[in-house]
Amino acid sequence: MKLLTLVGAFTLALAASASAQTLTIATVNNGDMVRMQGLSSAFTEETGIELNWVVLEENTLRQNVTTDIATNGGQYDVMTIGTYEAPIWAKQGWLAPLDALTADASYDVDDILPAIRSGLSLDGKLYAAPFYGESSFIMYRKDLMEKAGLTMPEAPTWEFIGEAARAMTDRTADINGICLRGKAGWGENMAFLTAMSNSFGARWFDENWKPQFNTPEWKNTLDTYLSLMADAGPAGASSNGFNENLTLFQQGKCGMWIDATVAASFVTNPTDSTVADKVGFALAPDNGLGKRGNWLWAWSLAIPASSQNAEAAEKFIDWATNKDYLATVAAAEGWANVPPGTRTSLYENADYQAAAPFAKMTLDSINSADPAKPTVKPVPYVGVQFVAIPEFAGMGTNVGQLFSAALAGQMSADDALAQAQDAVTRDMTRAGYIK
């Protein structure tokens, strides 16, 4: 009898194991996502749904999920995608709408910041739920700024940034005045450089979709960037993306870093950052033309239409992006470390405001970015640090490789711009945008 009971129990256990759902989740290796993975056992305990994590570097993630969804591969149940992909892929029918989520009053979709929600929607339907939202701003060492005899304005110009970066550089002490993205990729160096170019009055295309890399505005943008990095940037900068520059800043090797607002909690966390108590914040620079060099982005969770586990996937997205998750992170690691930039209620939370000195500037930066009017002159496209057309990912990566090569000293700025003009003109002609 005892043996039969044991056999029965074993059989039931096998059946339960066989019937347990498993979701495969593709995500980026940024700190907030790594933290989400670490906390996700609570979701499995609550639901019985197992999670298979595929955590990838940013460029690799983009390549993998794009290939999978475009070929209907069905490899993933949940994908981490951005503001660029969400409406384009939704229009292609590649994403499942998050109807159950938006219909759930407890999820409170109206609490999502309007600028973030709009970028993840198509025809009023939400196709990706924001895990964190961001703009970009300046993070700087207050002690090094003071040592240089300068005071950082709340809203500095590029001229001031150049002066300060060169003044703070101390090669003998391994301190670079400024760290900026140089790694090639439409979402790596081109996210930074496109946003920067907006403040110089540059644009990717004129109103007739003709590429504009042969203009004085782009020449001024790239020359300023390359000169700044040569005088005050780190060695090997053409290999540095978000994570590499984060490490440099946390190690005390950057006087300034212009990048995603989400980095603020990491550079001010004394567990990881050697300069946590010395960090100040300022708005992204401008040139007095009416546009700052800040972007608008959200890393978000979406369900590919090919997933066979859409209902379970939506449950996971609910868990990872609702208000309760923010409270879970706050309880585990403090309010300063919750994923920022998604919900109005977070910025109304007195505990968050007290713990996060960067909160107001993050919100101001997000709200000031205007995807419909990203630069000084009129453009036919939507997007601040990207152009919201399907062809942009390929073109942006190609141009990013040229500009990264210029940063590495492998070609001149003029050659990089000329080749970018030729390549993008060819691609846009082939795609039918120009004759």
TrEMBL record:
Name of this chain's protein: Sorbitol/mannitol transport system substrate-binding protein
Signal sequence residues: 1-20
Family: Belongs to the bacterial solute-binding protein 1 family.
Gene Ontology CC terms: periplasmic space
PANTHER family xrefs: ARABINOSE-BINDING PROTEIN-RELATED (PTHR43649), DIACETYLCHITOBIOSE BINDING PROTEIN DASA (PTHR43649:SF12)
CDD domains given in the database record: PBP2_TMBP_like
Alphabetical list of InterPro entries matching this protein: Bact_solute-bd_prot1 (IPR050490), SBP (IPR006059)
Family matches, as SUPFAM superfamilies: Periplasmic binding protein-like II
Compartments where found: Periplasm
Pfam families: SBP_bac_1
Keyword terms: Periplasm, Signal
Gene3D superfamilies assigned: Periplasmic binding protein-like II
